[in-house]
Design a protein that fits this description.
The chain has 345 residues and is of the alpha/beta class. The protein is built from 15 helices and 11 strands. The strands form 4 sheets. It has a 5-stranded parallel sheet with strand order 2-5-10-1-11. Strands 3-4 form a two-stranded antiparallel sheet. The chain has a two-stranded antiparallel sheet with strand order 6-9.
Length: 345
Amino acid sequence: MTESRTESSEWLIYRGAGEPHDGMDRLPPPPPWRDFASRETAGPGADGSQNRRLGAHRHLAELHRPGAEELEMINAALYLRRPLLVTGSPGAGKSTLAHSVAYELGLGNVLKWSVVSRSTLQDGLYHYDAIARLQDVQIAAQGGFGSAPGGPGAVEGIGSYIRLGPLGTALLPSDTPRVLLIDELDKSDIDLPNDLLNVLEEGEFAIPELERVADRLPDGEAEVLTADGAKVRVRDGRVRCRAFPFVVLTSNGERDFPAPLMRRCIHLELGRPDHKRLATFVRAHLGDEAARRGDDLITHFLERSRSELLATDQLLNAIYLTDAAAPTSRDRLADLLIQRLDRPR
């Protein structure tokens, strides 16, 4: 009994013994999706979380092989310049689809808008920081800033307080479309799907704060920030796309959407991932060797997912962590990490 406990406890960093020790020296590198140190290599204005996941998403895009129906619906959305509404269970590959299209067609990094219950249409379009501008004006009035043209109190400086959201950035005029992932739309409040209709239909939107002062701006233009940290010029306070973005709306099927939205979208229903797709998912994040060693966990995960609600993130966590655990605790640890999400409370 003592030997078994010692063997199964060798991987523990925190031992609960109440005695200081140098166990932190044995802590392995973090999983790729939790490597916050990668933010140090991110470029100006880059999102650290996006930078952490870019390599894995790129690898997933390289390995992604869509089925016939998926391929046809993606191309239908491209031809018709319509949003693609992708529904399916967690881990079915809904987000991967957007990255796969961007990678294969050379459309740049995917713009991502993660929807929550408080999200509004304006969150996706742009944010105007009126409070910061007022504070800067007050500081300038007290002599804290110089009086050069374009300062915080000048009309010319208004663009410094406006940042486009992911949807607003995707609608900027360009010769090729951007790829926009609007993730988990079913988590929004009841109004957001309807509010999206006009913008997705017209491919343009107004920024009233710029429209009001457009006649006082040089050439009617203001320089604003985009969601991915670039600076662009907006003319006459309106953003109008030239190439409609490839928009992927994802849903876990937790609610129904209004008929007007469904009518304007191409709808693709993804089934549960099979063993091959799950193994690809694991290889993309953890490498071939981890996928090989975790093959039995993938099989067990698939068997359980037929009757339980599970997420592929749980599978990734289990395979990564059980690589570091002693063999005697491996299966038990995996079961602790892969717990059904729909169990009664």
